[in-house]
């Protein structure tokens, strides 16, 4: 039943969405932002409290470094949320100017690998089952380094991390077309990520960040392909108009988000194995409300995708009825699912309008008064 699926969906929010962020031009400080990871979890718990489908929070190391990770996980649990993916960071250290795990110097590679293994220790301490690996590694100029040698170094590091994973742990390898490297990124596309993951085994999967492709890329094709191969580990949802804009999911192109969810559902990926994560920054809009809006946008795309009449679609496809098949998909997309989602929330004992309920709660006014000198998320750091 569609409502059961909508109630069961888990959308993970990122700790860095709650801190200050910006572009390389300016980080605008907002009132009430968290001063430490504990407060980030408290804000994330608000998103869950008003939507009912965001019980997991991704951490980023070192932005969320604490002395006692078990205590952080216990704090999350007390707030009604749990720790999701651990995001590693091998891109914000002077040593990584020429790369991290693909750096030409073995000393730097060892340092990067040690960080990745530390992140698995943090998974053990927090109960997280997912490590997210994004590498900014790449080169800016032809000839700067050997492209094939860098792939060898990458494979070596991934193999070492893979060996360290526990039975119920996995890593998700994220690809990105460009930025910060501008000529040749070491994991630029899903094919590269897939090839490395395929060699390693079932605990290595690909994560699709919706902002990491060339304009016009058919992301839902990638989703369908990876799911078919058992290699779709999850999503970093966000939306983009130009490059890696990290705007709210479903804001720039809700139709694309719907098409992606159609493939996820059609491919049997609507399970907890495919992680629906947000990877966003709220540079100018309020952060908690921005996360609530994003979660709702993902829910709307999901609800519409669940409404696709699969039987009618199969009949139209088998008959070669091009317009009929397309109409089945468009009918679902053009359905207003907001009343259905309001019912789902009411069934969960929640207010049917999460944005209004959060605004009325007074939480923002309270944190704006209580918290002085909030932290940057890390991106602007
Ligand atoms: C960077 O562009 C990637 O989207 C990363 O997934 C992510 O934003 C970063 O690792 C934050 O933790
Ligand atoms: Zn991402
Ligand atoms: Zn990104």
From TrEMBL:
This is L-rhamnose isomerase. Gene3D superfamilies: Divalent-metal-dependent TIM barrel enzymes. Keywords: Isomerase, Manganese, Metal-binding. Residues 47-240 form the Xylose isomerase-like TIM barrel domain. It comes from the Bacteria. InterPro entries: L-rhamnose_isomerase, Rhamnose_iso-rel, Xyl_isomerase-like_sf, Xyl_isomerase-like_TIM-brl. Pfam families: AP_endonuc_2 (PF01261). GO terms for molecular function: L-rhamnose isomerase activity.
